[in-house]
Amino acid sequence: MNDAADITLWLAAARDGDTGALDRVLSVLYRELRQMARRQLGANQGATLNATALVHEAYLRISGRTEAEFEDRAHFFAYAASAMRSVVVDHARQRLTQKRGGDLQRVTDLPIDLAGTVPQDGELIALDEALTRLSGVDPRLAQVVELRYFAGLSEVEVAAVQERSERSVRRDWQKARMFLLASLKSD
Fold this sequence. Notes:
It is a single chain. The chain is an all-alpha fold and about 190 residues long. It has one domain (about 5-185). It has 8 helices and no strands. It starts with a helix and ends with a helix.
């Protein structure tokens, strides 16, 4: 049996209450999750939050769900990206509260280079708030941003996760960026 089939079976077992099944999924996908975490942290990896810590924190949030509902590998990665986003934003908020005069900074544009640096703490929090507003308007667009920006997936990878065409993902990415830019400029 291949890894994809094993993962699907383990995710089904986790849905049925097998707590060890999610651990097996993590052990098989650990390297990919660390790569996702490194992309999300970018150049701003601090001593208190590195890729390993981010994967572990996200895993605790994933495993802390009362009922695992991951249909397949793609669904697991989509949730992992969301969990990592949450950890990074919480970490940024914590650092801001520890700084003197930790005022939020206004974001004037979204980074076009996804492999570039992650925004500063205040910018990251503002982006998270705008993304939360976007998810209230269109959850699919918000997921595209989460997967592209926070998880660092390409349009091809996002299309595979969402089971849609690359062209549709590209249009959604453009719409989402316009919404977020407008939302950030109005803050």
